[in-house]
Amino acid sequence: MAQKIIAGVTVDVTEEGYLTNPAQWTKEIALEIGKEENVQLTDKHFEVLNFIRDRFAKNETMTIRSVGNSGIIDIKGFYGLFPGAPMKKAAKIAGISKPASCV
Amino acid sequence: MTNEGHPLNKVCIICAKGAIEDVYASLVLGNGAVMEGIETKIFFTFFGLDAITKKTMNSLHTSTVGNPAMRMPGGLAFPTLLGMLPGVEAGVSAMMRGQMDKLDIPPVKEFLEMIDAGGGEIYACKLAMDMFKLKKEDLWEGVKDVLTVGQFYEKCGGLQTQVIFT
Predict the structure, then answer these.
(1) CATH architecture assigned to B11-62+107-165
(2) Residue B79: count of CB within 10 angstroms of its CB
(3) Domain residues of chain B, as ranges?
(4) How many other C-beta atoms can be found within 10 angstroms of the C-beta atom of residue A44?
(5) Is residue A102 among the annotated active site residues?
(6) Complex confidence, ipTM
(7) How far apart are CA A102 and CA A38, in angstroms?
(8) What is the mean pLDDT of the segment spanning A32-44?
(9) What does the pLDDT look like over A88-103, one tens digit per residue?
(10) pLDDT attached to residue B36
(11) How would you class A20 by CB atoms within 10 Å of its CB: exposed for 0-12, middle for 13-18, buried for 19 or more?
(12) In this complex, is the C-beta atom of B79 within 8 Å of any C-beta atom belonging to chain A?
């Protein structure tokens, strides 16, 4: 397994840079990965990140629809916060596995 | 050579059939592309127009007759004669929609809205609309335009573009 130093901390990551242990995640790490992904994180971003980390911890499937129904943000807003590939980007910044869902 | 060096830039999907499974194949591929940050355009033609017609979009059916892949719950073969009985096709179709909802696969209209929210574009075929005597007002409001086939191809240009017929 690969390791990477992010925000001064050594964490375990996959080849693509997804954290393999969500417990190693910190706010500083999120900010740092955000920079790599060209996303400047705001409080709104963190609300979304916490929501998907929660879902991940409960072993619930990660879908774009679930984020849209979260009450935090609608789908258009989600694409706006994490431009390009929102689900993947958000998962990477949230320190969880690469999303494995087709929707 | 790895594919990662040449990611897809654009995906153009053509949906010409109106059964649940055909429409969802197009919608899942389209939404999946949008989620990957790929420019996405979906062209609905012939019976595929049912998926973007207000009256029909949320009551699509699957075929219980002449569909060799159709199974009973539990996996037994589904007799074609049973599929012909009144109400069976509607029941099976409703069951399929229910199963999909459990997997967080949305109804057609919501799915189209998701694609639209991510910047994907939905188009209708002019020729098929003329054939079925449909007007732009009959279509879901999110349909970007009614195009001839040539106009659609004009939008399909560019490197790393794929045209997919479902």
Answers:
(1) 3-Layer(aba) Sandwich (3.40)
(2) 11
(3) 11-62+107-165
(4) 13
(5) yes
(6) 0.91
(7) 24
(8) 97
(9) 999 999 999 999 888 8
(10) 95
(11) middle
(12) no
